[in-house]
Amino acid sequence: MTTNSKLVFIDIDGTLADENHVVPESAEIACKQAQANGHKLFICTGRSVPKIERSILDLGFDGVVSVAGAQANIGDRLLFQHLVPPEAVDAAMAYFAKHHIESYQWQGADGMYISEGYRQHLESKGKTWNRGEFARFWHLLDEIDVPAGSTLGHTIHVSKGSYFTAPNPDVTFEQTQRDLAPWFELVHGSYDKISPNNGELLINGIDKGTAVRDVASLLGYSVADTIAIGDSDNDTAMLKAAGTSVAMGNAIHGIQAFCDITTTDLHDNGLANAFKTLGLV
């Protein structure tokens, strides 16, 4: 057992949980052991809190960083929350319309606001978006009542956006990244299997990396005592910010190149093996 408490940030999709949102038993056990050894564990995800399964929250993490670093909670206690400026939401909506990008969503503490195209995508996948534990958090953008003289951006309160295009878009990811740069930082999203042209729209200057530094500061940890574990480009900021960075064996987008260590695949006890290598368990 180590006496030097570490602050560990763990991505969900592809790191903690598999494509079916199942957490391997070895990961559950490792997390419990690490906490028993005095380490603090935070989920650090691109998802908003309403989009995190109860089964994952019930594992008993010490805190949750959500919406790609824009919000952090310890239980019901809000550590910080950043919102997308209204004019940025409106600029992105105009851009989506101009370039025929029909599948997108906005996420925040109130839930997920989705386009009709994104709704159709969920239905085509057999996702029961309007039933089950997340039902009350899904909102169709077409049904949002925008007061006269106002805009959608002023009506919804969100902390990030994401989108994916049809197979032959008229703009590349790089073009969209450049075009929306005044309002957002764009990173590759987690929709690669659906469309190679997809992205996450993050608040400029706010990401998983700023969250690692801010949570560490608020909880009295040195950044040197932070650890980040992830699997894709949208984890880059936290991996580069943390004192120690770990890439999953199933990592994509080449993030292994700048991580301190690469563990095994998620399905091959990746998280548990990382914890052992790092001396957390």
Structure keywords:
281 residues, alpha/beta, six-stranded mixed beta sheet, 9 helices
Architecture blueprint of SSEs:
Elements: E1 7-10, H1 25-36, E2 40-44, H2 54-57, E3 63-66, E4 71-74, E5 77-81, H3 86-98, E6 103-108, E7 111-114, H4 116-124, E8 138-140, H5 152-155, E9 160-164, H6 173-179, E10 184-187, E11 198-203, H7 208-219, E12 226-230, H8 236-241, E13 244-247, E14 261-262, H9 270-277
Helix pairs in contact: 1-9
Descriptive account of the structure:
The protein is of the alpha/beta class and 281 residues long. It is 27% helix and 22% strand. The chain has an eight-stranded mixed sheet. It has a six-stranded mixed sheet with strand order 8-7-6-9-11-10. The N and C termini lie close together (7 Å).
**Uncertain runs:** none
Outline: globular
Q: Tally the helices: what do you get?
A: 9
**Major sheet, described briefly?**
8 strands, mixed
How much strand content do the residues show?
A: 15-25%
Number of strands: 14
* Helix content bin: 25-40%
Order of helices and strands: EHEHEEEHEEHEHEHEEHEHEEH
Instruction: Please give the order of strands in the largest beta sheet.
Output: 5-4-3-2-1-12-13-14
Distance between the termini: 7 Å
Rg from Cα: 19 Å
Report the structural category.
alpha/beta
Arithmetic mean of pLDDT: 94
Short description:
The protein is of the alpha/beta class and 281 residues long. Helices cover 27% and strands 22% of the residues. It is globular and about 55 Å long.
